[in-house]
Amino acid sequence: MTKKERFQFVIDYFEKHAPDAETELLYDNTYQLLVAVILSAQCTDKRVNMTTPAIFEQYPDIPSLSKATFDDLFPLIKSISYPNNKTKHLIGMANMVMDEFNGEIPETVPELVKLPGVGRKTANVITSVVHHQPNMAVDTHVFRVSARLGLTTNAKTPLQTEQQLLKYIPREKVHIAHHWLILHGRYVCLARSPKCGECGLRPICKYYKQLVS
Ligand code: SF4
After folding, report:
1. Residues 119 and 170 in one domain
2. Average pLDDT, stretch 139-163?
3. pTM for the whole structure
4. Whole-number pLDDT of residue 213
5. In the prediction, which pLDDT does 117 show?
6. Are residues 126 and 174 in the same domain?
7. pLDDT at 172
8. Is 121 considered catalytic here?
9. How far is the CA of 151 from the centre of ligand 1 (A)?
10. Are residues 126 and 169 in the same domain?
11. Residue closest to 149 by CA, chosen among 212, 204, 210, 211
12. Of 114, 121, 167, 209, which residue is the catalytic one?
């Protein structure tokens, strides 16, 4: 099976079984998604979703968040991982958006990664989810599932995974492919005990082939 055929099998499978895949973070606008994604580093979406309503109520937009003090914001964030850093990042992000982007959240990866707390993965999420740009955010699930399926070969870093995936996934499908791979990793292709018995990707999966050979 060629790499192209392998990708096609995976894309066909998810288009049939997960045509509406989307982020599980709850948000109403770009500001809310950006806050949620910054908070989601090393933390579950479920926990972030429990935390964000109170933040959005008190700080409904960039200008209000830019005026928050550490002591105001920290109590709203303290139940999630790395609350100190995340509190500083959110306030720093809002201040930079106000000072350097006229209060508008930028729409490109190179600009977004300048914001405190925003790395390449977060910038790829924002630009693909909000603007449907063909940017692939690689988290631990995307990294693992892509390798197991054989979509990537010897990828050592998230950036290598991103580059290999982008070679074969059509531009217009990149934004949804990100969710396909994340959700598959979260619910089926689990890190420690993948549920191969209920996975429709077995016929082309390299990891499964090794398991049964
Ligand atoms: S067959 Fe198993 S290892 Fe392969 S993608 Fe499915 S769950 Fe993951």
Report:
1. no
2. 97
3. 0.91
4. 82
5. 95
6. no
7. 95
8. yes
9. 12
10. no
11. 204
12. 121
